[in-house]
Amino acid sequence: MKKFLTLGSLAAATTLIPGLRAFVLLVLVQAAYGSAAAVTLGVSVQLLGITLVSVVGLSITTVFRVKRSKSPESARAVAVDTGSLAFAGASVVVTVAIVLGALIPLVLHEIDHVQFLSYWYISILSLVTYVFTAWQTGLLQAKNADSHGFRITAVTSLASVVGAFTITQTIESPWQALPLIAFLNFSFDLCALYLRTRSVRSVWGSTTDGLWNAAIQTFLANAPATFKKLPGVARATLDGLILMFVFFIAGLVASWQDAGIGAAVLAVIAFMRTLVLPLKQFGMVAGRLNLTSGDSKPTSMPRMLGIVTLLLTAGAMILVVLYQLDVFPPGVSALLIALIIAQLALEPISGFLFASMKIMVRPDFAMKPLYFISLLFTIPALLIIGFTGYSSAEAVWAVLLLARVAFSFSVLVLYRRARLPIRAEQVGR
């Protein structure tokens, strides 16, 4: 259990910090400039979050391929190849981001278009750093140097929040403040990438000499083939992408009715993302540890579930405290808090157990129910209440909660049916 907590906490904390930074930024902007600016920032944060989740697949691909390398030379070849994937991914991300910048103002009339475009197009620079950071993070994790990434993420995120606080306290105009915050975030994201690159060199040694040049040359020489590999990389985090897309639609629908409601939903989404996405890391660690144990019946899983439930209970208590301190926007009601706590009660199953089974059984475990529930119920239901004018914060979250109930039930059913083939060769899959 100690190893589970240590490894899980380290992996989860590295994922949690960017979400926590986004939540704090939303609170700061809401307090300084009101709901309209908070919605503008919140929409951008949602899109940035989708990118963050999608590029995790590059880290996973890098780790697994390096782990299977037989020599330093083959490990370097893998690092170069995954680096070429990073250059391909960055070009795709920039292209999609530019298109989204043009489309979002056409879809979401309630936001200030000048504020959004000024923040978003500067944030595209951060998107590029996310892709290469995922590559460098994978290289560190492949050498079990996770602590390097955690320290870098913690320091640069804290500096970013301090800088944003200074901006919101000294600049009165949101039209000036939001672009400055975006550029500040990019500056620290670039700094984090530079520090990770230095850490990779210190951990890998001379193996990484000329790595960046070799990666871009490989990409330019084999661009068509490299682009064809990207869907396979993204598939590793498809469940996270679906969750982020559903959250994005929820925030969008809530903003259609009222900026205050949109700000409320976006704030609680930022809080939930901060808790739920790191939970996947605990689940993956649990899956690997159970596989390593060689136990055909993972008897430690109930204890791990108990630990995760305690952690989520602490998260629910923090949520209540934040509500009592009026940290959230005015549109966050007691009923909305109750709905969120009910969803947290489901996350040991829908988040932790789901992620564990993806390691222990197969990578596509429970993906069919997730597709079905998200595409045929959650998104249509959100759009219906949005178009009919009933998209209150409580109604939006009630839809999300019902979807999570259905998915949790599906995970439990499939878990009971699953055969858990514990084989040494599956470790690290």
UniProtKB/TrEMBL annotation:
Ranges annotated as spanning the membrane: 38-64, 85-107, 119-140, 152-171, 177-195, 236-254, 260-279, 304-325, 331-357, 369-390, 396-415
The organism's place on the tree of life at top rank: Bacteria
Keywords: Membrane, Transmembrane, Transmembrane helix
Statement: the UniProt record of this protein carries the keyword Transmembrane: yes
Protein name, UniProt field: Membrane protein involved in the export of O-antigen and teichoic acid
